[in-house]
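# step 3/5: fold
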Amino acid sequence: MKFISTRGNKEIKNFKQVTLRGLATDGGLYVPKDWKIEKKNILKKSLSFENIAFEVIKCFTGNSLKKKKLKEIISKSYEPFRHNEITPLKHLDKNNFLLELYHGPTLAFKDIALQFLGNTFDEFLEKKEKKLCIIGATSGDTGSAAIDAVKRNKFSSIFILHPYRRVSDFQRRQMTTVKSKNVFNIAVKGTFDDCQNIVKKLFIDENLNSQLRLGSINSINWTRIMAQISYYIFSYNKVKEEYKNKKVSFCVPTGNFGDAFAGYIAKEKFNVPINKIIIATNKNNILDRFFKTGIYKKEKVYQTMSPSMDIQIASNFERLLYDLYNQDGNIINDLMNDFSKNGIIKVNNKSFKKTKKIFLSFSINEKETMNSILHAYKKNQIIVDPHTAVGLEASRKFIKKNKNDIVITLATAHASKFSKAVSTVLGFNPDFPQNYKNIFKLNEKFIILENSYEQIKNYIVKNT
C-alpha cells in the first residue's frame, strides 16, 4: 500500500517511509492513497487479538515487511502484556462492556500501538543510516509508552515534551525515572497543544531536517492509528457472538481523536457493522461541539481531573476531514491553513451529515466524572481512572435513549496512574502494579523549558 499527505502533496511514500517519518513535509498527515484492502473474514469470535492484528496490519505494510517478520513483531510487541487476551473484555451489565486496554508495560492503551511501533523501528533502522531522532508530545500516556518502546534502541534517541504540571505525578515519573541515555524529557511551560504545535513545527523546519533525521511517535504517525484498529474488531467479535440481534456501539474517551479514528476505520473501511462511535470528552469539548454543530472551534484549554484529554486541537481530526471531503488534499490544506489563522473550521452540510450517521458525542463535567468513578466502584466493584469514567458516563447517557443497544466503553488507563483523583472520590489509593511499587522513590531526570520553539529546538540539536 502507498501513502500520501492529507494536504495535497503528491509525493507517494511506502509503509517504511511513513513509519520512520511520521509527519508529511507539507505539515499534513499520511493516509493510504487508496483503500484497496483485502477484506478477509475477520469477524470471527475464534480469532485471537494477535491474529486479528496480523490480518489488519498486513493490509497496510505492502513490501516493507514480509509476513513472517510481521508475525514476529506482533508476537514480540504483545508478549510483555499482563493478560493473555491482550485487551480483555469485562461484562458490566446487560448493556455495557468495558474493554480493558491498560494491560501493557506502562498501564495505558498507548502501549498497544507503541510497542508495535517501537519494534517496527527496530526492524527498519540500520547502523549505516543516520540515527533517528524521535520527537513526541504527550498529554500524559503517550510519553511513557513511547519511551518504554524505544529505550533500548541503539539507533535512536527520543525527546518527549509534556506540559509542565499538567500531567499526573505518576505519569510524569513513568517518563522521568527511565535511566536510558537515549531518553530526554522536556517539561514545557504551556499546554499539551503548545507541545504539539512545537513538534509539528520541528517536522516542517527544513534547516533542522537537514541536520537531523526526525521520527514521530505521536498519533500523527500512521502506524499508531493502524495498530489500534485491531481491538475494535477483537471486542466486536466477542460481543456480537452472544448478542446477534443487538446493535453494538463503542464509546471512546478521547482528546486527540486518534483512538476514535481507528474505530472509524474499523467501521468504514473494514466494514465492521458498528452502530455508533460515541465520542466522550471532558470540559475541553471541541470534538463534542463539532459533532453537534459541524463547527470545529478552538477555545481555552481547561485543567481537569482527566488531563490526557485536556486538548483543544485534535491532530487526527484532519484525517477525518480528508475522508469527509473525498480525499481532496487541496481543500484540506486550505481548511487547515484557515484554522491556524482563525481557529475555526465549519464543514459543509454534506460532510456534517456524514458525521451524524457515524458519530455521537457527549461532554462530561467534573462532577459527573467523580460520580461515574463512584458508580463503577459501588455497582461493579471496579476502580476506574477518570478518563474511563468519562467514557462510562457518556455510555450511560447513550443507553438511556437506546435501551436495547450494547456499548463497549474503552478503558484507557489503569486507575493507579491517577491515584490522587481516584482517592479524592473513593477515599483510598488504587493498588499499584508490582513493577511500579517504588516509582515515587526513584530519582527523576528532566528539564523545564519555556514555551519557546527556538529554545526547545536548540536543546534537541545539542543533545542529539
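# step 4/5: annotate
The chain has a mean pLDDT of 95.
# step 5/5: archive (pending)
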